[in-house]
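Repro case for the chain-ordering regression, as requested:
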Amino acid sequence: MAGKASNAPDEALRVEVRGENLLAVCFTAMASPCETLLSSTVDAAALELGTLVAQEAWRVEKKFSRYRNDSVTAWIHENRGTRIEVDEETASLIDFASQCFDLSDGLFDITSGVLRYAWKFDGSDRIPEAAAIRHLLPLVGFEKLEWQSPRLLLPAGMELDFGGIGKEYAVDRAYDLLAARRSAPFLVNFGGDLRANRSPSHGPWQVGIERPDTDRTAKMILDLEHGALATSGDSRRYLLKDGVRYGHILDPRTGWPVWHAPRSVTVAASSCTEAGLLSTLALLHGARAREYLEEQGVRYWLLQ
Amino acid sequence: MQLKPKAPRPTPANARRRLIAASCALLGAAARSQQANVAPADSGLLEDWSVDSALAYYHEDGRILAIEPVVNLAKVFADGQSLNFNGTFDSLSGSSPNGALTSHTAQTFASPSGKAKHAYTTAPGQLPVDPNYQDTRIAVGGNWTLPFTRVDQLSVGAKVSDEHDFFSVTVNASIAHDFNEKNTTLSFGISNEFDSLSPIGGAPVPGSDYALSQKNAGKTKDGVGALIGVTQVMTRNWLTEFNVSVDRFKGYLNDPYKITSIIDSAGNTTGYEFESRPDQRTRKSAYWENRVGWNQQLSTALSLRYMTDDWGVRSDTAQLHLRWTLSNRDRYIEPTLRWYRQTAADFYTPFILSATVPTTGFESSDSRLGAFHALTYGLKYAQKLPGLGSRAESEFSVRAEYYQQTFNERIATPAALQGLDLYPGLKAILVQVGWRF
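-- result from build under test --
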């Protein structure tokens, strides 16, 4: 577990009373506001459960963050070109990424992170040179890894990025921790990716999804009884040149943004990992996002 | 970029299944790897059920004593359905007024059972009460609520109550519809009750002479009721509820153990007759409740009820209920004040003057049909405690209520009876200890 003292400023918990019998234990992880909602009025008990969730979020962040030099991701990057053996949890995430890569015909690819060296989505009009992208593409492609769980060989120059699945995975992990300890209603929400065990007695959870097409305070309210919701979008990060908006969803096969991707896709599924994967894949289908979601037969909310 | 050759593209349904399988594999592996540090959840029979249990002690000053354990089990399922069951066991003992008038002379009554050893004598100036009152009651009920759309829910329930001289079955069903973004709920409910009476010694012929003891075998009564209500969220912190209901009972509506004194103009008791009530009663009532959360500490509920029936009873009830959460949020107190007033039934009379013939042909001296007002003062204290096993919390509570009834109307009384307390009110206390977990 992440020691509380190690980076205290980030690891702070705040308890908020949201209703007569509703508490929120709030914290920040993975650069997102996170909270655990509990049907409870007992601060001590709620804080204990909320702490458990927060510690799990911080643990997953610390272990897989590409921004930390003590993470497993950093260790994998340091050992490029060498055959290494990863721990069970990392192996299961890489296995999952591998299956997603196959199932999506290469659209979902945890090696695509290197493309960000060419693309800086800062709202400017600095579109990268096509040559720069061509130069990076050889470093993208999950099939270039040697992966035989738990042994991994990451070729020189390549990177792994668990950012696309880490947050949803952390939600599910935290959910399981809580579900093993508590049968009363709760909801785990990490920056809009969330999962609930069941409705509170007064009715379904009211979940606010940010509407990226308007100001950030405007929200679409969904009723969630149980299960998970995950949202993917390219709302805030883009480049604009000659009136063309280049969203930050990149097709790992071309190195260029996916055209006509929806602004935001929210998907309901039984686990947050599954919901997150479906919403990400929908975005990667660009103009075909709605068609893709219909084919999957899931409940979804799509904003163009 | 070239992709390496792969298996044929999966069909969408197949792809979705494989995607679910992949997610499950990931999360299943995660669950396995964290199993070691997960505390085992309790897996008892009552797991997932919330249990509300209480033991009540009720004592009417000089009369009935009741001990009443109550248990209520509730479970909300993941799909929103809910089930709840409740059970009550009452044990009553003590003295119950038989309806006869206090007199200057001693009065001797036969027991309803007819057994000589249960005959009793009331001293001069004392309210005649049957000292052998003893009853036990078992009541069980269940309710099932089923949301069948996002905004509609159906609820059905049944209740069975059994005493040695009374058996009752009630069934009910209601439907509720939410609209206006769930800020408004309309509900409609119906209920049907079937009662069977088998009084000790038989059911007296209404209005017959007590001394003749004309009794029949068991009797029945049944009732139907309907309710229509609306609940409206006014603001974030204010909820208002209004409903109207009507019910109608038919059958043997008498209390088989109640008699009325017949007195002459000198005030002497010359005899008794069994009470005689109409065999139908229709009640209509309106109810309005406002619940307001003032802040995180204080919420109030104010309710008003008006009831009228075709027996001439009209009643008003006003109740103010406060819930005050103490600073650290794991304790609260709930003071309650209830005011009640009713007018007498048209045929209510504390006694029958032998010179008069009741004009309606109906009569009852049952004080519950008289004109009175009553005040109830209540206080509850609850302490929340950590839950057991996987439960979030438990709650221990103590509730006490004091009830005081005062009669309002007095009818012209023969001079000889003056000085006797013909309208003794009633004082009662209730103490309840509860544990919810």
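Ordering looks correct now. The longest strand of chain A covers residues 22-29.
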